[in-house]
Fold each of these.
Amino acid sequence: MKLKHNVQGNALAVSDEEPESPKPMPKSPDLGPPLAEVDIDPVTDLNEEVPFPSLAVEVIETLSISPARSLHTVEETISLPSTSSPIDNSSPSPVIDNSNGFTDIPKFSDSTQPSSSRSRPRAKVPLERGFTQVDWLRLTRTQTDLAGLNGATNRRFITKAEVKKHQSEDDAWTILKGRVYNITHYLKFHPGGADMLMKGAGKDCTLLFNKYHSWVNAEYLLEKCLVGVLDLES
């Protein structure tokens, strides 16, 4: 070991061994051959179109479905009605009327119409001159005692036995909807004829009345012919 003196005169111990050499720096990993330098012109390259990968192609390729698979899925999802069941041909086919030269207007045969809808209206009997409904309304305004009450009130109860006594053309009473009317003067004014009206003389004609002309306001038409109210206990 050697002694050396510094500037201040102090002794310093110095080893005889040589100092170790510095360790070499670690090498950087091999990144492959260096990239080639590219000369980029900022003016000319702005005008050039840079190709980009088409995203639409990738999306279509990703979402593409086989046609056979999609049709098979639709058939499994939607159940179609079976066409193997026989068709009901019981309903009659329309009959085409060619009499007027047109073939596009179908008419159905009479067998399809219910029998109740083909009921024929009653034919009116020709009335004598001066015996129309207008003449009857005029008569009810001029005649005050068409019921033949002779001053008696029509607010009374009448039994069926009493009504039965009046069943002639000269003296005809009838029961209609719980009221008793003297129809003697109305016989010739009846549109269906006197014979039809006489079928209700002396009895209750409500069913017969509703069968042919239930829409007629009999209370107004025969107001001046009211005799009384039917006694329901009779």
Amino acid sequence: MAATARRKVRRRIRLAVTGTVVFTALTVTTVGASATTPMGASVAGPTLLGAGSTPSLMPSVRPAAGPRSPMPGFLLDRGRYTAFDPPETGVNLLPAGVNNRGQITGEYLGPGKESGFLRDRHGKITKIDLAGATATEVVKINDRGVIAGAYSRTVPFLSDPNAKAHGFLLDRGKVTRIDVPGAVQTEASGINDRRQVVGVYIDAGDNPHGFLWGKGRFTTIDVPGATYTEPIDINDRGQIVGIYGEDPGGASIHGFLWDKGRYTTIDLPGVPITIPYGINDHGQIVGSTLTDAATLSGARGFLLRNGVGGRVTPIRFPGAPRTLAVGINDRGQIVGAYENPNTAPSP
């Protein structure tokens, strides 16, 4: 029961973003296949469509009138916001991370289909699907271009919170599957340049736990007293940020920083939900606060420039009713998504 509730919490934001647009048919096609790389043992894993040949690069559209999608992505660099859209209509992008090379990763949400995407520093977008997967979630990317995420072979995550998930790493077209031993589900979410990976797994008793994986070894990450713990990102110093909660329903969600085995709660004042999404090597943290994860109500981005306990800098796209801040690199570039004030909200 707790695991089911936690999975609903994790995907409420995706559902809310997906619900902001009336989907049309996807027209993007991907071809080719790559080899798979096992992790520790020979396993049958998925392959990246498009990696066996030259990937199909779709330039990000920038209409003269501005972004057209209900929830565009953005890059914040030295005080300047640059918005970007998916290269087709009827689709939403949900950025998740940015590395020091300016590469942005995230989710490409279409009608009945979840894919990942990679946006290069020139604005070109590559759609990522793993062969045989009904859903591909692309989350963080490190400076070497290695991507962490999760996939399902059964049903899309958005249509069923109990969809069986496997974690993966994608490195130059090759896929490494990540499954915590004995777990019924594993999702990878963050990766650093030391190839340490964080994420969440569900044990045989349907209990959710966070994990840290490095050099073939898994370590469980559980905030004491929490019903669920979900690490989201890790920097090169081994500092981890994520969320936890005592309420299985997810009405109240707390952020946390894990540093050398010590947990510090991150709760911004006046809101029930604080989600730290990203941490860079300087210890700067970005995230979002909400009053309701199911509707993105009250979504506001924030930056903790001096880490936990430091001054809170609001991140709000100019004129946008709602803003999500989700990733930060060592150059201080921040990525996120915002509600487009120039498009009509969905019913």
